[in-house]
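Lecture 7 notes: from sequence to structure.

We start with a single chain of 574 residues. Read the sequence below before looking at the structure.
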Amino acid sequence: MDYKQQIADILSEKTGLDRENILKLVEIPPKQDMGDYAFPCFVLAKTLHKAPPVIASEIAPAIDVTGTPFKVKNVGPYINFFIDRSALASDVVGRIVAEGDDYGSSETGAGKNVIVEYSSPNIAKPFHVGHAFTTILGNSLSRIYRKLGYNVIRMNHLGDYGTQFGKLITAYRLWGDEEALNKDPIGELLRIYVKFHQEEKKDPSLTTSARENFRKLEEGCPEEVELWQKFRDMSLVVFNQLYRRLGVEFDNYNGESFYSDKIPEIVDILNEKGLLVESEGAKVVMLDDEGLPPCIILKSDNTTIYASRDLASALYRYRTYNFDKNIYVVGGTQALHFKQVFAVLKKAGFDFADNCEHVAFGLVKFKGMTFSTREGNIVLLEDLLDEAVSKTREIIVRNAEERGQDMSEEEINDISEKLGIGAVIYTYVKSGRERDIVFTWEDMLDFNGDTAPYLIYTYARTRSILRKASDSGITGIENADLTVLTGDDEYALIRALSELPESIVKAASSNEPFMIARQISEIARAHNRFYNNSNILNCDDEKLKTARLALCDAVCTAIREGLDLLGINVVERM
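Now the structure, written as tokens:
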């Protein structure tokens, strides 16, 4: 049952306010003894010409709660609603046990297409921790939208075009090592790319050669295209190894190159609408009326840039997928670029520009962390993952030895991999996406902090309780009498569980996975308070024991599902 919706219906009838406005105003009180939901009466003061406390004292007693699970009373300027604990327990826990992994799912997005563009690394360059932000964030958003019933198209808009490929082709012909390329594609391509820039300072003719090679690539000359394809294919092999490790998948790898032959149509459209003007030899669209600098469409040498390719891709995507949302998960430094692209689309008469959205994110920083990276000041994602798994393994082995726990090498490796990678992923999504991330091992791997290891350990320990119950012959969890779950710790936990579906909806509406991370963290902490203060397996009351085990089962489902939406795997024991 959606209690908030029911409260909105009751208040709408009593106040005459629009139901949707009431939903926006209803709050969750900061303290448990203040109720489950509260409606502030300040909004009514202007029309009723009364003080909010007076309004609350008049409306609250007049609300008929017959046949509802509510009690109502006014507290100052608020009308507070208290849900019957037995009803809440039966509804929430019963629903989770019955629905299982479908808990929190909905058909809100049925029949609607959402494109999520994320990761989008540059071909022939190392995959570093900055690329991980867009990859992890985009992967989570894709999962969240799917949970809500949307048809999600996961796009990896590869950086596989541009003048850098003219440079790479020139560099490879001059200094490339075929054996080194086959052994370490990214390393060799980076080596010759860096060498090109070093030599270019001494030999300007290299710049001319690179421009000529890129021009040939754009014109489809066989030799240049063959080399470009080779660099692209080899890079993708390396990238896909990382994607598999992170549990990341894509439906489409159309990179910048895919849209190259679609740019002439964009140029024609902008010309026909009188939007394209010449500026210092380049073709641009003026955006003065939008308070933005001109958007370059073609450079002075008639070659394309990011903006022209993004315009072509947006039009292609709309024609192909008729999207309801076209989301670009790209760093905040590109905010101006996307404002320009969306503004040009709008000027050109493409109303779907309103459905294009830039989902920005912050920077990645490190505190007291050193890496043996292969590329100077670049922190490679592979190195970060390896180090996280290694450090997690040390903790798992030490804990197993202290507890006298017998674990196979295979099990230790599996747990270490899931916890280590989970720790990295959670660090990216546990806070608002536009906040900078500061990595510290102490924080990431704290089994008592706001971390993936803490959440996964809570899940594993709870699964252990359920296994022991099963081994003891306890059955009937699915038919437990949940009305007995009325204690304070039980109630706080059930309330936290009840709010998971709404956190998923809020995460999608704001493109903020941290809302789910925050909610499952609250569930885990509420569960651990319940676990520490309650007898579960040793409870003398059989009815209460079975109900508490059902509650544990619901907790496992919620944590597993919540972590899955973030892209994190659980383990069954630790």
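The first helix runs from residue 3 to 15. Keep this in mind for problem set 3.
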